[in-house]
Amino acid sequence: MIFRTELTYDPQSVKLDYSSKIFTIGSCFATEISEKLSNYKFSVLHNPFGVLFHPLAIENALMRIYSGEEYQASEIYKHEELFLSWDHHSSFSTISLEKTLSLINQNLQEAHRYLQETDMVIITLGTAFVYKLKQYDLVVANCHKIPNSQFNKILLAEHQIKVSLKNIVEMLTDIGKTGIKILFTLSPVRHIKDGIIENNLSKAKLLCALHSVVESYNNCDYFPSYEFVMDDLRDYRFYKEDLIHPNDMAVNYIWEKFKDAYISPKVFPVMQVVNKINSSLQHKVQNTHTIAYKKFLYSIVKDIQEIEPVLPPKAFREEFLELRKRMSDS
């Protein structure tokens, strides 16, 4: 008997390896894939504006990265004690105007440089709902927990989403290296605060627009992370306790599908070694003043030194320094 509808996804021609540069942007689900790539020591830059949920916010962020135009003090707003940007996630908000500006512009310039060398951009859309700040008639990326009464909530039309996505593709194709690949995904995270029916309508609009745009460009692909959760796994046991976000099992399942489709099998052995090193680094030892413990640390150092030549530069730099410190302290 068959108890589930399993989704098959054919491996793509583009294969990432440890020389590849990957740029990810979008909703919190993009963070999950980015963290997996980072843990395996791939070169990845993730969400230089923080988590972004709707296509207009992503388009705006990429337009600013594309131009390289730094933010000015006049674009930063103060709410209560915090200085914030309507284009950025609240993680950029601080009690200092100078610090907020510096953090925003450092990330902007780093993203501008990195994007010019990027091999693959992964974009994850979360919702077609946007919030417009009444005071400035401005579509914001984040409401920063400011009362809803100060915003108008709008559901984007499909043609608006298409225009935004096409602008994104054109900008990335222009600023990126020859052969840059743009991979679109739809977040399986359900925005049920909008309402279940409204969430489904929002996702449907994004899906229709995504497929229309992807089919129009040779350098675009669609990865079905949404369908893997909603139609393949299709069970609440693959969700966290909030019944909204996919849990670790679901994320690992989708990661394996992504790995098989977009990562070169030639680097799988290297990834296994990286995973072994990561596991060793997390190993808890009761007595850190034994010869056996020093030998254990030394074996990790040796593993790092042997694998470093095939990884991006300084991939294990922080871990290596921490190991040296542990060895001197034990």
What can you see in these coordinates?
- The chain starts with 20 loop residues before the first strand and ends with a helix.
- It has ten helices and ten strands.
- It is an alpha/beta fold and 330 residues long.
- The strands form three sheets. Strands 2-1-5-9-10 form a five-stranded parallel sheet, sandwiched between helices. It has a three-stranded antiparallel sheet with strand order 7-6-8, with no helix packed on it. A two-stranded antiparallel ribbon has the order 3-4.
- α2 (55-67) packs across α3 and α2 (55-67) runs parallel beside α4 (158-175).
- The protein is globular and about 65 Å long.
- Principal-axis shape equals globular
Which CATH C-level class of the largest domain is it? Alpha Beta
How many domains, in number, for the residues?
A: 2
Low-confidence stretches: none
Order of helices and strands: EHEHEEHEEEEHEHEHHHHH
Q: State the end-to-end CA separation.
A: 57 Å
Biggest pleated sheet = 5 strands, parallel
Average pLDDT rating: 92
